[in-house]
Here is the input.
Amino acid sequence: MTAAWLFTSAAIIAGLGILFAFKQLLRGLSYRMERKEFNQQGLQKDQTRYFIQVALFEAIPIFLLVLGFMFMEDNEASLVSLSIPLIVILGIILICISQIWSSKQEVLSHPDIGKSEKSYINTIVLIGFSTILCIPVISIVGIILLIN
Here is the structure.
C-alpha cells in the first residue's frame, strides 16, 4: 500500500507544480502579446525558465516514483485498496487538463493574436500537456502493476 501512496504523492506534486509553471509561462506569453514584444529571444527566455522549473518540480516526484517501484514487491494490494489512489490521480489529471484548456482559451482570446502566435501557443500547450501529465500517467502504470 505504501507504493500506491508514493505514486499518488508523485502525481500530485508533479501535476500541480508543473501546472503552476505552465500557467506562469502562458501569463508571460500573454503579457508579451499585450506589449507587442512577441519576439524569438523573449520566447526562448520564457521557455528556458519553464523547462528549468519543470526539472525542479520533477526532481522529488521522480525520487518518489523510484521509491514506489522499490516498495512494489512488499505490497500485496487488491483493486479495492488501490481505487482511492487511482481516483486521486485521475482527479489530478482532469484538473490539469481543464486548467490547461482554460488557460489556452484565455490566451487565444486576445484580440491582436496573429497566426504565428496562435500556432506557437498551440505548440506550447502540447508541450505543457506532455510535461504535466507524464508523471501522473507513470503513476497510474505503477498502480496498475500493483494489482494482483
In short: Helices lie at 2-34, 40-70, 79-108, 115-146. The first helix runs from residue 2 to 34. The mean pLDDT is 89.
